[in-house]
Predict the structure.
Amino acid sequence: MNKIITISREFGSGGREFGRRLSENLGFAYYDQEIVQEIAKRTELSEKYVQQVMSHRPISSFPIHIGRSFRMMADPNMDQSQNIFREQCSILREMAAKSDCVIVGRCADYILQEENPFRVFLYADMPSKVKRCREKNYEKEELTDRELERRIAAVNRRRAEYYEYYTGQRWGDRIHYDLCINTTQTNIKRMTAAVTRLFAAQS
């Protein structure tokens, strides 16, 4: 069985850098945006649209109401979301079967649970997330700190809603992870080196 590390993370906590450095240190394949690209290719949808769907909990096109008819109606928005998630599951399993790998986000810790992945969750306090976002220039707009805090909180709220919709588990709940890392005022490079040693010792 291949070794799999899944990285769940709060926006601005350094999860992407952590995952990439960890994959390089261990010589593992690294998957992040590649998952979106492959889904777009298989579904013939744009990467931007796929990313949008994967960033939000599915919402029905039809309001819930009491009516005279109980006939089920097709819901294109919900169907599209479910189709994309099915492709996501299929692609993640193919990637995990191919080689040792590090996978960032995409509910991989839940989807690949039968493969016994090493599950990591990264978090940080808000000032650290704001500082990291500015350093990485994630937000191209000129935002005040308060505006950026609201943006970060919104992204994390959507991630939690998406994860909880498909898994039935609370996003960030330590019971579902093997290692939770507080990256507040932490050097990601040094932290990655420490986790590399930890993972190598357990393998």
In short: The chain has eight helices and five strands.
